[in-house]
Each structure stands twice: as structure tokens, then as C-alpha cells.
Design a protein that fits this description.
By secondary structure, this protein is mostly helical. 85% of the residues lie in helices and 0% in strands. It has one domain. Helix 1 crosses helix 2 and helix 2 packs antiparallel against helix 3.
Length: 99
């Protein structure tokens, strides 16, 4: 990206960048990517909570194992669903429109 000394040119460039970012979020593909990032962030947060649970609150071992099993099943389901959506988007793009 080239920098300019003219403030109006920098303002126009910034406005163009903001419009492009908004256009990405208004498309189906951008919303899908944002949703996947949000779900990935939730998964990382849950993994951190689970690690803290294993380290500091492991006294009822069965409860920690149930939480770990729920985490593994949820992450596995999410990854399978994301893979399924990706395969379906490749095979039948007309169903998803602009996605």
C-alpha cells in the first residue's frame, strides 16, 4: 500500500478500504467466514476453560471426564458440519447463491 502526503487521498483510500470490508461482510461467504471464526474462538475459549478445569478443579474426576467428552463431541460435530458445508458448496454451488 502506497502512502501519500495528501490527507484527502488518504481519506479516500481509507473510505475505499472500509467499503470493501463492509461488502465482504454483506456477502454470504463473508458471513460464513465470520461465523466460523466466532465458533473457533468459542472452541478455543472452551478449551482454555477445560484446561483450567483439568489443572485446578480435577477433584471429581468423572465431572472433568464428562466435560472433556462433551468438548470432544461438540468440536467433532462442528468440524464435521463445516466439512459437510464445504463439500456441498463445492458440489452444488447453486444452492448457496453468492456463498
Amino acid at each position: 500500500m502506497s502512502t501519500s502526503d495528501d490527507p484527502l487521498e488518504r481519506l479516500a483510500l481509507r473510505e475505499t478500504q472500509l467499503r470493501e470490508q463492509r461488502a465482504v461482510l454483506e456477502s454470504g461467504r463473508g458471513m460464513m467466514r465470520l461465523a466460523l471464526r466466532f465458533l473457533a474462538a468459542l472452541g478455543v475459549a472452551w478449551a482454555i476453560v477445560l484446561a483450567v478445569h483439568w489443572l485446578f478443579f480435577a477433584s471429581p474426576r468423572w465431572l472433568v471426564l464428562v466435560h472433556t467428552l462433551a468438548f470432544v463431541l461438540t468440536v467433532g460435530y462442528g468440524l464435521t458440519a463445516a466439512l459437510f458445508l464445504r463439500v456441498m458448496r463445492k458440489r452444488m454451488p447453486e444452492i448457496y447463491g453468492d456463498v
